[in-house]
Structure formats: structure tokens, C-alpha cells
């Protein structure tokens, strides 16, 4: 993939590319390499001496049940967030894909939460479901439920998942709608002529043709749940109660900042990098293949 | 589509309105809370209709700030967020369009190496390399500065890839034509390529502005001084651990103010926003 006719100049292209290469080297490669290097080092408690310990940080990390729990927890979060947000968004997109009056308005009214910062989304939901002053919490209490996300781990998880899924609805909705609109109407009409009702048409024609979009969105939502939930968690629960909402990224943050355990934090960063690269690779593989059944 | 809509259409309208209500309710509640007095919220006796403290709360939030926790008026935070979002959006666009131009329209040694070097940055968000990046920013004396707040977030390849993709679709004839007219590479870039890229630049700007405005983890680490806080960080610090001291109307007013600029951008520039979102995710 390259242009047939190009300019020739010995110096100019390097000048043009210098700012980006400079920034990428200083703020991307240097820190990334440092993370890798630091993950092989062990610092004593006072930060006075460092020794090279090879893979000891990794070994220690992988033996910790705590770290294993964080991995499981993060994937569980991803599944819950992606599952709830995707299904709700798909329902809305299918409805908005119908020839209704005012569809443009519906679309506008559904996409703006994309612009809400995750941390702000966290504050909004915390406020609604705050055990002592939340409006919805009051309702739950009246129904006889002892709702308290500040003390009950499961409630805290539900709270984080709700806020995270809420914020992601608009994104998923937009891509589902685009996917639905690209399905040729003739296929659906053919199915209708064969006597398939709306439900059947959806499950046998629309849904299979939508699989590339669904697959793409699953990967995006998992990455979102991994990283962008940081703000939500920090604003709502701070990883608590009793680590019930401590995801991998949040653990990197806590172990490096409060724990001061930089070697372990760096090793966690590197493992996270590996997970993200794996996810991205899956995504690219799919983009190449464009699977539809 | 095939059957007449009738009752089914009604159901669709209904579901969409329920969706809109679910999406809008938390924000409505924040607005309502920001117009009521602190005592009734703290008692859990908040009304679901707007109260009469709108002007009072918002002027106090913007010009004075919460007394206990952040010590800075939210106006200052809004300014910091605006600077950060603008510098990230414009900076990223500027450096990316130049490097994409070099990669597509020139042949030079290590061209593909450099392309891949930039491409790889796509994979790792700043969260993953947070402490080493922090250390480097500290070594470069960038803590509590706009440079430190923005430069590390500019280091990514999304925009470069987008511009590269777009330049590949620009017909070669344009280059030939301007070459016959005697235009050099800079002139061609300025007079031909840049005007053609207008829509892409605008769409990218919308996406990057929102991205910059909503940053959380990085500003949380890099800013220690109160007057360098962004609004998204400030809001978090207003919620004190002992609930009794949290001034909820002001927290909610800050939340509303923090949402307003990016949400307005999305609604006013909806077409560009959708275009940008679809393009950057490809």
C-alpha cells in the first residue's frame, strides 16, 4: 500500500515526522521499557536499594491468590458490563431502526451519554444509590431490601456495573444502529415473503448478519471495562468494600501509589500489556476475516 | 418494514422512550439536586422537582468553590479542563497530520519502521504504563504544568492512522497537477491536502476534545496543586469520606458543569461526532 507518485526530499520527511516520533519515544517507549525493566527489580521498603531479581516479581504475583482473584474479578466485570450494555443497546437500536416518526430525535437523545466522563457517571450513580441519601436507594429500602454498597461487596459490584454499562449504552447503540442499517432490506423482504415473522426474521437473518458488529463491540466493551472503569471505581468505591471492586488496573494503581511496591506494580503493568495486546490481536484477526455466517 | 406498524410501532416508541428515560434520569436527578438546599438532600428527603437554589448554588460553585475539600472555585477547574482538552485535541491533530503526510507522500529510509513504531502505540492506553510515565514527567519537571497534563496523552497513533487512511484515498492526479503548477511539498500540503482534510480534522477534533476533557487517572497523578485540578478530578475530591461534610448541591452542580461542554459538543456537532467515532474505531 503506497502512493505511486511521491515527493523526494532528503530532510523534509524527517522534519515532518520528528514531533510525533519525539513524543512517542519520550512518553511511550521510554516508560514502557522502564515498566518492563522495573518489573525485574526489587526495591526494599525504604527505596534505598534495588536488586535485580529476574522473574521473581512475576512468580510472586502469580502465586498470590489475591492477584488471581483480581483477574477473575476483572473478567467478570467485563462480562457483566458488556452483556448488560450490549443487550440493552441492541434492543434500542432494533427499535430505532424501524421506520418510525422522530427517529432522528431518538438518536440524539440516546447518544449524548458518550460524552459523560466515567468518573462523573460514577458520581451520578453513587448519588442515586447512596445508602443514606440516594433516591433509588430509598425505594429499594422501602421494598425491604437492605441496600448498602458501602458495606456489601455484591451491592458495590452492581453499582459499578450499572454506572459503567449506562455510560456505554450510547456507544453500543450507535454501532448497532449503523450495523442494522447496512443490512440489505431485500434480504429481510425475502424472508418475509417466505412467511417469517418479525421475531424469526430477527433471529435467523438480522442477528447472524450482525455478528461482525457484535464481535467488534464485545472486544471494545472488554477493553472499556478494563481501563475506563478506573474513574468509575475510584469515584464510587475506591476498590472496596474488602477489594470487591478492585480490578486489575485499579490494583496497579493502588499497589504502586499506596503500597509503594513499584516492582510488583510494574510486573502487573506488563501482564496487563500482554492481555491488551492479546485482545487487540483477536480484534485485528477478526477485522481481516470479516466473519459473517 | 413489511407489515403495517400499528401496535408494533407503538411498542417501539414506548421502548425507545423508556431507554431515553433510563439514560437521562441520573443527569436529571443531578440537576434537581443542584437546585436544592443541602439539608434536605443530606436527610434523604430530596424532592424530584427542581428547587429554588439554582442561581445561588451555581454562582457559589463557579466563583467560590467548596470550602472544605478543593479550596478552588470550579471556574478555575473548568478553565484547566478546557486548556487540557484543547491542547490534546489540537496537538494530536497537528503532529499526526504532519507525520501521516510524511509517511504517505515521501520515500525515506526507515519509513515502515517508523510507521510501525507509531502504530504499536495504539495498543497500550496510558493506564498500563502509568507510573513510569509519571516518573518521566517528574524528571522532566512537568508536574503541575499544562505540558505534563497534555503531552503524554498526545502520544498515540489513532489520528495518524486516520489521516494515513484518508491520504491513501486522495487521487494521485492531484499531486501530479500541483507539481505541474510548480508547487513544492509544503505548498501541496497547505493548498490541497489540508483543505481536503477539513471534515476529518473536525470529526477528529470532536472525539479528541471529549477524550481530553474526560481524562481521569493521568490528571489525578500529575496534578498536586489545587489550582491545576481539572473539573473531573475536582468533583471526586469534593466528596469527602464523612458524608456529613459533603456539600451535595455543589457536587451535583459541578457534575452538571463537567458534563455540559462535552455533551453540547456531541449534540451540536452530532454528524461530525458520529463520523469521527466510526472512523477512529475502524
TrEMBL record, chain A:
The keyword Cell inner membrane applies. Keywords: Cell inner membrane, Cell membrane, Membrane, Transmembrane, Transmembrane helix, Transport. InterPro entries: MetI-like, MetI-like_sf, UgpAE/MalFG_permease. Pfam families: BPD_transp_1. The chain crosses the membrane at residues 12-32, 75-96, 108-128, 156-180, 201-227, 266-287. Residues 71-283 form the ABC transmembrane type-1 domain. GO terms for biological process: transmembrane transport. It is a multi-pass membrane protein. Its main location: membrane. GO terms for cellular component: plasma membrane. It is found in: Cell inner membrane; Cell membrane. It comes from the Bacteria. SUPFAM superfamilies: MetI-like. The keyword Membrane applies. Belongs to the binding-protein-dependent transport system permease family. Part of the ABC transporter complex UgpBAEC involved in sn-glycerol-3-phosphate (G3P) import. Probably responsible for the translocation of the substrate across the membrane. PANTHER family: BLL4140 PROTEIN, SN-GLYCEROL-3-PHOSPHATE TRANSPORT SYSTEM PERMEASE PROTEIN UGPA. The complex is composed of two ATP-binding proteins (UgpC), two transmembrane proteins (UgpA and UgpE) and a solute-binding protein (UgpB). This is sn-glycerol-3-phosphate transport system permease protein UgpA. It comes from Rhodopseudomonas rhenobacensis. The lineage of its organism: Bacteria, Pseudomonadati, Pseudomonadota, Alphaproteobacteria, Hyphomicrobiales.
From TrEMBL, chain B:
Residues 78-269 form the ABC transmembrane type-1 domain. The keyword Glycoprotein does not apply. It is a multi-pass membrane protein. It is found in: Cell inner membrane; Cell membrane. One of its GO terms (cellular component) is plasma membrane. It comes from the Bacteria. PROSITE patterns: ABC_TM1. One of its GO terms (biological process) is transmembrane transport. Part of the ABC transporter complex UgpBAEC involved in sn-glycerol-3-phosphate (G3P) import. Probably responsible for the translocation of the substrate across the membrane. The complex is composed of two ATP-binding proteins (UgpC), two transmembrane proteins (UgpA and UgpE) and a solute-binding protein (UgpB). Belongs to the binding-protein-dependent transport system permease family. This is sn-glycerol-3-phosphate transport system permease protein UgpE. The gene is ugpE.
